[in-house]
Amino acid sequence: MGAAWRGVRDLFRRAGIDTAELDARIFAEVAFGMDRLTLVNRERDLAAPDHLKALEKLAQRRLRGEPVARIIGERGFWGLAFRLNDATLVPRPETEMLVQRGLEIVGPLDHPKILDLGTGSGCIPIALLTEFSDLSAIAVDLSSEALDMARFNASRHSVIERFETRQGSWFDPVKPDERFDLIVSNPPYIESAAIETLMVEVRDHDPRLALDGGPDGLRPYRAIARDAAAHLTPDGVLLLEIGTGQGKDVTGILAASGFNRIEVGHDLGGHERMVVARIEPAS
C-alpha cells in the first residue's frame, strides 16, 4: 500500500502540486478505506486491485486541477468536518477569523441570536453554535442545494435544533421586526472580470454564485449595508469578510449607511480580511 500512495505522491510532485504528500495520503485513506494510523501500520501490505483503481481515479481528478476538498466531498473548518456539494464554497482557513471575532462578540451575551447571510455549507454559524449552547442562528442562502448541505452539517454536529435556514437573497427572507446580536457574512467579493484569472481550483470548481461580487466586487456589500442596521439590536455588530484591498471601499459603504464605528482586520499574511461595524449613539 505504501508503494501505491508514494507513487501517487511522486506523480503529484512532478505535476508541481505543492501539497503532493498530504494529498496522496488523503486519497490513500479514502481509496483503501483506512484511517492514517492503519495505513501506516499496513504500509507493507499489497493493495487490492479495486483499491488501486479507486486511488488512480482520485489522482486523475487531482491532476486535472480539482481541489482535494471537492474530490473527497468535505473540508475541515474550526476543527469540524463540513460536507460540501456543488453549491457550496470550500471553507477557507482565513474565514475562521470571523468565527474567532464572533466568539468575542456573542460570548458575553445571554441567548444571543445571529444571522448568517450567504451561508453556503453553514460553516460560520455552525462553528459558533458548537461553542455556545444558548446561541441560536438563522442562515440565509439563495441556493436550496446549499441550504440542504448546511442543514446536513448542522445535524452532523448536533446543533440542528438551534439552526434555522431560509432561502432568499440577503435580507429578503428576514422578517421586518427580527433583530440580531450579530450579523455575519462571507459574501462574494471577486470582481466579475477577475474570476477567469483565478486558480483553476477556484475558477472551475467553486460556484460562481459564491465568487462573483459584480463589476467592482462590492455589490453584495452595498446590498448588506442597505438593510443591516434595521436588523441589529442596539448593541449589535455586523461582521464581514472582505478581499484584499477592499477595506477602504467597504468602510465607505458602511459609513454611508449609518455605521460609525468601523474597523478593518488583517489575516496572518497581513492582508485585509474582515470588517467589524457598529452603530453607536451620539454622546
For this structure, the CATH topology of the largest domain is: Rossmann fold
By DSSP (H or I, 4+ residues per run), the number of helices equals: 11
The CATH class name of the largest domain reads Alpha Beta
The first-to-last residue Cα distance is 69 Å
Largest sheet: 7 strands, mixed
Helix and strand string, N-terminal first? HHHHHEEHEHEHEEHHEHEE
| Fraction of residues in H or I helices | 25-40%
**Overall spatial form:** elongated
CATH architect. name of the largest domain:
3-Layer(aba) Sandwich
* Count of the domains: 2
Instruction: Please mark out the parts with pLDDT under 50 across 5 or more consecutive residues, or reply none.
Output: none
Structural class: alpha/beta
Summed over residues and divided by their number, the pLDDT gives a mean of 94
Please indicate the percent range of residues in DSSP E strands (runs of 2 or more): 15-25%
For the largest beta sheet, what order do the strands appear in spatially?
5-4-3-6-7-9-8
Q: Give the full name of the CATH homologous superfamily of the largest domain.
A: Vaccinia Virus protein VP39
Compute the number of strand runs.
Answer: 9
Provide the gyration radius in Å: 21 Å
